[in-house]
Amino acid sequence: MNRLINDIEYRAWRYFKDHTNQGKTSKGYGLTVDHSKNPGVASIAATGFMLSSILIGAHRGYLSESEAIMMVRGTFETILRADHDKGFLSHFLDMDTAQRHRLSEYSTIDTALMLNGVITVSSAFKDPLIQEMAKAIIERIDWGAFIFFDHGKPLLRMAYNPDRGGAYVIGEPGFIHRWDMTAEQLMMYVMIGGSRFKEHAKALYEAFDKPLGRYGDEIFVHSPGNTLFTYQFPLAWLDLKHIDDPAGINWHDNASAAIRAHRALSIDLSTQYRTFSKHRFGFNASDTPRGYRVFFGLPNVTGKPITDGTVAPFGIVSSLPFEPVIALDAIKDLMTIDGLYGPYGFMDAFNGEQGMWISDKIISIDKGLELLMASAASHDIVRSAYMKHPIIKEGLDVIGFKEHHPKR
Q1: What are the angstrom distances between the C-alpha of 379 and each of 6, 268, 375?
Q2: Where do the H-state alpha helices sit in 61-156?
Q3: 404 vs 3: which has the higher pLDDT
Q4: Angle formed by the axes of helices 128-139 and 65-81, nearest 10°
Q5: What percent of the chain has pLDDT over 70?
Q6: Looking at residue 408, what is its pLDDT?
């Protein structure tokens, strides 16, 4: 097992090394591409995964500590001068200038994924300049500007775009949608709990919907679309295996149940979709034969599964910390698909409905999740560093997370 998982981790690490701006005089130093087929556009979320990859590289000996520190410093300098609004960065940036790409939105979730990387490396590397710059990046985030009240209930806005016709703008520009559902935003409340806005953290956490649903034998809190990545993304950094929320929800166990439900549904649909099997499962957001699409498992708001049979390997690899036997058996099966596993590990997705289609791209945040979950299944250096950061420790305490006591 270790040899295979280590190889997946190494190849994913190489992806971030090769798809990140390493030009030492470039204003975009440290920015990582959105995906491998679009080298001019950077993703601030992907840059958060890249920062975490620096720690993995140093831990594994792929980088010296001095090299790692210089990379973190340079990336932090770029983040500090990049376009932002109240500390929130643009979802997409120009790879070379760090300027906002076109009319991209200023995104809470993409900024939070970047902050995950900042928190991780600032916890791991005790370099004074890294500490100073990390503090500046974190403290300029004005969470208060994105908090609003709906019938007395506090919620977070998803994004902001000042431009008519900009990304996600319908009608008048301004704030965009709300985090009122279970999704991938869990770490935001913890960050807020460790910030100057901590008085809002517990109420914000309690305010988003947490509906229980069932598929087969599995009962779990599910997102509206029940897309697999929503359970995995925050837990690439937050290690909540032994920590319950104030209502007794264990998000690690919840992710395990969601993974098992996705697998069971894939098996049940295998008579309709030849791609699906007990080893080829999951309803995710990924590249498909018809471009990028988001698929739904059950239960979901539509009441029916949404899929074209596409399977995303990163969702299977990212199941390792939760369902290691299921995930490892599936990974071994995926390795038998010719052309799916390459120099950077698994391609983004495949579909066997009409011949075997394999994506020709790698989406960086998907590869980042693959990298961090392979790491979590091995040495777990990223989650260990992240969970030791004072902001995360305080945030969990403020919200009321407690040590998990399994039922006997």
Answers
A1: 10, 35, 6
A2: 65-81, 108-124, 128-139
A3: 3
A4: 30
A5: 99
A6: 46
Residues 281-295 have pLDDT tens digits of 999 999 999 999 999
pLDDT at 404: 74
Classified as helix, coil or strand, 52 is helix
CA distance 67 to 57: 10
Q: What CATH number does residue 375 fall under?
A: 1.50.10.140
H/E run at residue 190? helix 186-193
Question: Are 57 and 16 spatial neighbours (Cβ–Cβ below 8 Å)?
Answer: no
The answer to the question of residue 350 being in a domain is yes
Residue 408 belongs to some domain of the structure: no
Q: 93 pairs with which residues across the strands?
A: 42, 100
DSSP state of 3: H
Dihedral angle, C-alpha 252, 257, 258, 264, nearest 10 ° = 150
What pairing do the DSSP bridges indicate for beta strands 41-43 and 32-33? antiparallel
| Tally of domains in the chain | 1
Q: Is residue 347 part of a domain?
A: yes
Q: Which residue has tokens 């998907």? A: 366
Q: What's the CA gap between 139 and 116, in Å, rounded? A: 14
Q: Give the other-Cβ count within 10 Å of 329's Cβ.
A: 14
Structure tokens at 363: 């989406």
Q: Determine which helix (DSSP H) or strand (DSSP E) holds 393, and give its type and residue range.
A: helix 390-399
The DSSP output letter for 99 is: P
Domain hosting residue 180, numbered range: 2-403
Domain assignment present for residue 15? The answer is yes
